[in-house]
Design a protein that fits this description.
- The protein is α/β, with parallel strands linked by helices and 269 residues long.
- It folds into two domains: 155 residues, Rossmann fold; 101 residues, SIR2/SIRT2 'Small Domain', CATH 3.30.1600.
- The chain is 33% helix and 18% strand.
- The chain has a six-stranded parallel β-sheet, with helices on both faces.
- Strand 2, helix 5 and strand 3 form a beta-alpha-beta unit.
- It is globular and about 60 Å long.
- The two termini are 13 Å apart.
- It binds zinc ion.
- The site of zinc ion has 7 residues, from loops.
């Protein structure tokens, strides 16, 4: 059933001068199929706040292990790898609401990726005392030996060099927006804005892949506005249940109600 969709996307990519890709939760490496998509921000925030109360050192170390495996390609995201292959040679930009290091390890050009909700390889002060982020790699080198995490008693949580408080991953957590340090992505954001300004009156394809209603102003609504303003723009929206597009855009947009991760995983098979 996917073959026709694949051919249609390939044709549109080939035809476009520029390709803007928005990547949402369906394509997240941690995504579990049974996970419910976000329908409204309130339920999302409540879920996150409950989860944060259970946060512990153990959870932090599990996250370290997960990120370390991604960096060292022990955990991979074949859907993203296939997408990267498909975009090779095109003038593209990727924006994602996911916090997923696989976006940087799957073959996309790193200077063409923007993750405004954070980065798993950056740390920041838990209270963001001095608005700074730093690379997690030196810390990983302390807690991993020969690819394995050292024993409990040999490791310590990272601390902020400025104030000594516990450091955390530089990721946007619902309910903790005030302490999220935005320095981690601002340079990428500037690059993105510059790239976007060059899309005016160009034949641009917008691929909205697997986004729900989490931070819709970043991808979902922004893409719709671009199609509204640029007569040469075309939008393809793919999501298992939330691929609907506004009526005003139907002439320059198409939706496919399929799971974007499954679609891209099987692409070359
Ligand atoms: Zn601090």
């Amino acid at each position: 059933m996917y073959v026709e969709i694949c051919r249609e996307i390939e044709r549109k990519i080939k035809d476009a001068e520029m390709v803007l890709v928005g990547i949402g939760k369906e394509l997240d490496t941690v995504q579990k199929k049974e996970q419910e998509p976000v329908q409204d921000s309130k339920s999302y925030i409540m879920g996150k706040i409950l989860k944060n109360q259970e946060d512990s050192a153990q959870e932090f170390y599990e996250k370290c292990d997960f990120v370390y495996k991604k960096i060292h390609k022990k955990i991979q995201n074949p859907a993203l790898m296939n997408l990267a292959g498909l975009l090779e040679g095109k003038n593209y930009f990727i924006i994602s609401t996911n916090i997923d290091e696989c976006l940087y390890c799957s073959g996309f050009r790193k200077e063409r990726v923007l993750t405004p909700c954070g980065r798993e390889t950056l740390l920041q002060c838990s209270s963001n005392c001095n608005d700074t982020v730093w690379e997690a790699e030196p810390y990983f080198q302390q807690i991993f030996r020969d690819g394995m995490m050292v024993k409990d008693e040999e490791r310590k949580l990272p601390v902020c060099p400025a104030c000594g408080k516990t450091a955390v991953f530089n990721i946007l957590r619902a309910g903790e927006e005030e302490t999220y340090c935005e320095q981690g992505y601002l340079a990428d954001w500037e690059r993105y804005k510059k790239w976007l300004s060059g899309t005016l009156n160009r034949k641009i394809l917008l691929l909205d892949l697997g986004t729900d209603f989490y931070q819709p102003q970043l991808i979902r609504w922004a893409f719709e506005r671009t199609v509204m303003l640029n007569q040469k723009a075309y939008l393809i929206r793919i999501h298992e249940t939330l691929a609907n597009i506004p009526k005003e855009l139907t002439e320059r947009a198409v939706s496919f109600f399929v799971n974007s991760r499954e679609l891209f995983e099987q692409w070359r098979l």
